[in-house]
């Protein structure tokens, strides 16, 4: 059992983007660029990261460059809390087979970095309308095809088998309009997958930010937390003007947003949650907010675990 001090809590590297300032893909950048960005995380008092493939897709690195990344990581005094895939669905019509191969490669690499969970999901590339919006969730995006649901189940089982062989787990990220886009759909999909090495990522921040009706967050968490093995954790404001029907939302640090994470994290522990956390934030000084969120989670864990001791 983890303590509040050593519980895996990583900073998502998404805020650095997939290219360097001169336009070079991070994948092709020199290791000095990787080191410089990792150092910014360490300087904020955070010692773990999630190298999302939206920053540095480890699955696409050669074996030599994987080892180069490992040396840079060690040199900056950082470790990995988890590995996440972003917008690379295993049932993407054009790229699904390649995404499946990449997911399997992530699972293969994970144990050598001390990672116990690889996260994936069914969200796909942003549309032009989403990319042009102030916040991408203000425009409609990809909607999963019901005809591909059985294939999705089959491929997730393949990932589950690979994870089990490596002694790790796969987590499925909840995201609107996908097979796991609501609490009920997520639980039903997981039930149909029926694999001991596959769980849910209850990233309900993806849902409460939407400008549409969503189920109350306490009800959603109550349904999905018993099945959760990893957690992309972030918060937003959420408001509805009853006179006009207009919604508003914006990213916020964990303790200031719509979801009461002190309550939710404690409830998760009561339900047996033992997975890593990955802190995310959009806009403003994302990395600075993430660092504050890491410390907030550790304080909540410290209080909750001391009470249980």
TrEMBL record:
User: What residue ranges carry the coiled-coil annotation?
Assistant: none
What name is this protein filed under? Sugar phosphate isomerase/epimerase
> Among its keywords, does the record have DNA damage?
no
Which branch of life, at top level? Bacteria
Which residue ranges traverse the bilayer? Answer: none
The UniProt entry, under InterPro entries, shows: IolE/XylAMocC-like (IPR050312), Xyl_isomerase-like_sf (IPR036237), Xyl_isomerase-like_TIM-brl (IPR013022)
Task: Spell out the Gene3D superfamilies in the cross-references.
Answer: Divalent-metal-dependent TIM barrel enzymes (3.20.20.150)
| Any one GO molecular-function label of the UniProt entry | isomerase activity
Q: Does the keyword Isomerase apply?
A: yes
What are the residue boundaries of the Xylose isomerase-like TIM barrel domain, all occurrences included? Answer: 38-299
Keyword set for this entry? Answer: Carbohydrate metabolism, Isomerase
Q: May I ask which residue range the UniProt record assigns to the signal sequence? A: none
